[in-house]
Amino acid sequence: MAERERTAPPVEILLVEDNPGDVRLTKEALKEGKVYNNLHWAKDGVEALEFLQRQGKHAKSPRPDIILLDLNLPKKDGREVLAVIKRDHELKQIPVVVLTTSKAEEDVLKSYELHANCYVTKPVDLEKFIHVVQSIDRFWLTVVTLPPAK
After folding, report:
1. Which residues pair with 14 in a beta bridge?
2. 90: CB partners within 8 A, 6+ apart
3. Which of 41, 81, 107, 133 gives 29 a disulfide partner, CB atoms 3.0 to 4.6 angstroms apart?
4. Phi, psi (degrees; rounded to nearest 5) at 44
5. CA distances (Å), 30 to each of 40, 42, 56, 149, in order?
6. d(C-alpha 39, C-alpha 34), whole Å
7. What Cα–Cα distance (Å) separates residue 34 from each residue in 13, 27, 40, 63, 99?
8. Which residues are within 8 A (CB) of 143 and not within 5 positions of it... i.e. 6 or more apart?
9. Which of 14, 15, 11, 16 is CA-nearest to residue 34?
């Protein structure tokens, strides 16, 4: 299991999350991880798609290596964002981790139907939330081989 060193380019992570508290906790959890990363934040589904499609203020945005996607977002919800990503020839290979508070079976099934790479329910407990984010970090950024950027 090779860890990326600081000489390697950072892993580009797009966090699509409308809750600033969860953004702050995710940043802290990733900072404690062993993988050098750049965390980018989109506060709603519309901004996420602008980032991914490099539109407007995101024209020079990097292509993310992985996307952490909440389902319950303003403007355009996570299911819609996931559907757009997985239909787009340029974006569909980017792994999408659905990271949401919803435990609803219909959300789990719909996310996988839309080709989410995994579905993780956010714990309410602070320590458990940090542990979950660090587990995602360890698995997706140190164990898994991510597809090369196009």
Report:
1. 40, 67
2. 150
3. 133
4. -155, 175
5. 12, 17, 27, 21
6. 14
7. 14, 13, 18, 21, 20
8. 1
9. 11
Tokens 């659905």 sit at which residue?
98
Average pLDDT, the chain: 88
Retrieve residue 118's tokens. Answer: 């995994």
Token duo for residue 82: 């996931």
Smallest CA-to-CA distance from 35 within 138, 117, 144, 148 is with 138
Query: What is the rounded CA–CA span in Å between residue 106 and residue 117?
Result: 16
- Domains of the chain, CATH where assigned: 11-142 (3.40.50.2300)
Contact of 117 with 91, CB cutoff 8 Å = no
In this predicted structure, the answer to whether residue 50 has a pLDDT above a threshold of 90 is: yes
**Joined tokens for residue 113:** 């139907």
Percent of the chain with pLDDT over 90: 57
Token output for 37: 């990363």
Calculate Rg over the CA atoms of the chain.
14
Q: How many CA atoms lie within 13 A of 83 on its CB side?
A: 9
